[in-house]
Amino acid sequence: MKNKFIVFFLFFGLLAFSNFEANAQCFASPGNPVAGSANVGVLHPRIFRLVLFHKFSYSDSYYSGSKFNEYDFPAAIKNANYNYTGMSLAYGLKPKLSLELDLGYFINKTQNYRYIDYQLKGYGLSNIGLTAKYNIYKNPVKMLEVTVGGGLKAPFRLEPQVVNGVRLDVDVQPSTGNFGFNLQALFVKEFENISTRLIVLSRYDNNFTENRMGYKFGDAFSNSIFISKHLANKYTELTKDITIICQFRHEYKKVNHLNGKVVKASGSNILYIAPQINYNFKMVWNFSFIFEKPIYHYYNETQLGNKYSLLLSITKDIGYKIKM
Amino acid sequence: MKSIKILLFVLIGSLSFAFFACDTDEPEPQPEPQPVIELEFISLTSDKEILYGGETATITAEARGEELVYQWTASAGSIVGSGKTVTYTPAPCITGENTITCKITDKYKESLTKKIIITVE
């Protein structure tokens, strides 16, 4: 039973998918997941973890501050959405050190106008990120763990995407075009007697260069709290491989800059709720489904805010065998 | 006698080949060379110079040349459409002077560029 619990712990990494979209463009909608996932914790040495995921995000309402804004103008966007497929590959380098490589591809990043019969659509490779994580404290008796990490990200393309002779707006460009870094810290506390885990994840993302459109996305701060409950020995045999998680995440994004000037309608304060369900198949594969919705938002000036996101992921650890 | 027959056969065959291989057609008249239309970027105009929140502007590029290709960029905001006429749709946050650039390239890879400034209030 304990080993089984450990397996769930190992797989928990994929549950902390970051919604760090370097969005908060004027139309705050699609944005770019910085580097896909935010796997939590470090891996055992010589263990590979592969995470494949797909995210769909949808936006269709404008907000001024925290209030709905009709924004009924000729240039209004009816809705915006994106489909993003990503991959994260992590490797346990040392007992306390893991490396992670994240990358992704926008199948589409689309804006539909309300009064103009036209669709802006970008697609292509997004950014790539490399992150190192180090476990600075681990107390197996108290089941406490603290991990810190830091990484770099780079765009897959520097030149903005041009479609039909028109350079796409930054809102629908597949790559931010910015180089940047991130810092993160993770606190994990397990309560084995009730098969529950509490995780706090803090993350800071910085873009330190302008892209070739003169655009620089603002810094982003995020704090997430996860409460997970493993349904082992509960209800029926069917639920024994299922974990349910509730995530609350606060994201604060600073304003963006265009050619050195502040983009007034950028930057936001958003609180998300993201219920998740995990299914573990034969201790080898892990499937997750996440639904995410803002429950509070504040946008500077007027922006197109995110309505909801869906995320599906598959995780597999390679090189790890556990005796049950 | 037999060798003469063979010689004649070869001779006639060679003459026939030479006859049919010879191009007896009159040389086709060459088409008159068309005058090259030099690329000329006549104008880049907008139906509005100042836009108020959420408005759009129609921007037209007038040019002469052959097989023209239009490339558009906006310093901020979106360009909707393609070709010689497009619609500029600035986002609500993009206030101030925004530059729309049109680059026209012809079949000879010559190109000319014009810019227009649209103020978004």
What does this structure look like?
With 324 residues, chain A is mostly beta strands. Chain A is built from 1 helix and 17 strands. Chain A has one helix spanning 2-11, and strands spanning 48-65, 67-69, 77-94, 97-113, 119-139, 144-155, 162-163, 166-167, 180-191, 196-207, 215-216, 220-230, 242-253, 256-258, 261-263, 268-281, 285-318. Chain B is α+β, with helices and mostly antiparallel strands and 121 residues long. In chain B, the strands form 2 sheets. Chain B has a 4-stranded antiparallel β-sheet with strand order 1-3-6-5, with no helix packed on it. Chain A binds chain B through residues 25-27, 62, 71-76, 111, 113, 116, 118, 120, 162, 164-169, 171-172, 214, 258-259, 261, 263-266, 301-303, and chain B through 53-56, 69-83, 86-87, 89-96.
Strand line-up across the major sheet of chain B: 1-3-6-5
Instruction: Provide the spatial order of strands within the biggest beta sheet of chain A.
Output: 1-3-4-5-6-9-10-12-13-16-17
**How far apart, in Å, are the first and last alpha carbons of chain A?**
8 Å
Q: Number of helix segments of chain A?
A: 1
Percent in helix of chain A: under 10%
Mean of all residue-level pLDDT scores of chain B: 85
What would you call the structural class of chain A? mainly beta
Largest sheet of chain B: 4 strands, antiparallel
The tally of beta strands of chain B, per DSSP, is 8
Low-confidence stretches of chain B: none
The fraction of residues assigned to DSSP E strands of chain B is 35-45%
Instruction: Name the largest protein-protein interface in this structure.
Output: A-B, 35 and 29 residues
- The global form of chain A is globular
Task: Output the radius of gyration of chain A.
Answer: 20 Å
Tally the helices of chain B. Answer: 1
Largest β sheet strand count, sense and barrel closure of chain A: 11 strands, antiparallel, barrel
Helix amount of chain B: 10-25%
Low-confidence stretches of chain A: 1-38
| C-alpha geometry of chain B | rod-shaped
Q: Could you state the order of secondary-structure elements of chain B as H and E?
A: HEEEEEEEE
